[in-house]
Amino acid sequence: MTTAGRRRFVLLDRDGTINVERDHLTDPDRIELIDGAAEALRDLAARGFGLVVVTNQSPIGRGMMDRARLAEIHERLTRELAARGARLDGIYFCPHHPDAGCACRKPATGMAEQASAEHGFELSECFVVGDSEGDIGLARALGATGILVRTGRGAETERAAAVHWDHVVDDLPAATQLIERLSPVLLA
Ligand SMILES: [Mg+2]
Ligand SMILES: [Zn+2]
After folding, report:
1. Rounded to two decimals, what is the model's pTM?
2. Which of 46, 60, 98, 146 is the most exposed place for a label (fewest CB within 10 A)?
3. Residue 74 CB-half CA count within 13 A
4. CA 110, chain centre distance (Å)
5. Helix, strand or coil for residue 158?
């Protein structure tokens, strides 16, 4: 059982999980929510889950956009979610090039650790939802429950991945239903 009064958190990938995958999204106008994603997040929050996005944003490290542009993208994403009643507790990003060897690019745990320190949740009790091997790698590194969604690159990941997923579902709404089934203690 979770510690009384401590919220469980869902660590969410962004591209291909919440919004439609674009190869290196650098334009706020190209943000498009995946069907049902906002409603799924709204439902999770209503069940008491904390919601944090952890996203690799190598376009910054690649010189394709700056942090101000990424902030615009996240402002747009936040607004589109809010219009459908969903609110995130935080957005954490890794701005580094994949070759930088940083401690935050998924599957490394830096973003999750920062979120845990700021919001006070237990990493091993988290659910990690994403469409890429980096997401499941993160789940495994945290001892958390990993859920692969088939949106974005997920179907491709499901076919190719050598690593083991705890669960594979069609999309974020299905992941939400699964999380709610796996967490009956929160319904009491
Ligand atoms: Mg993704
Ligand atoms: Zn990084």
Report:
1. 0.94
2. 46
3. 19
4. 14
5. helix
Q: What is the rounded distance in angstroms from the CA atom of residue 141 to the CA atom of residue 112?
A: 10
Environment of ion ligand 1 (residues, CB < 5 A): 13, 15-16, 131-132
Structure tokens at 185: 């203690």
Ligand 2: distance of its center to the CA of 59 in Å? 12
Residue position matching structure tokens 């491709």: 156
Which helix (H) or strand (E) segment holds residue 126: the answer is none
Sequence-ordered strand ranges (E) for the chain: 9-12, 50-56, 90-94, 127-130, 145-149, 167-169
Span from the CA of 187 to the centroid of ligand 1 (angstroms): 29
The predicted-structure confidence for 72-95, as pLDDT tens digits, reads as follows 999 999 999 999 999 999 999 999
If residue 100 lies in a helix (H) or strand (E), which one and from where to where? none
Domain 9-187: give its CATH superfamily. Answer: HAD superfamily/HAD-like (3.40.50.1000)
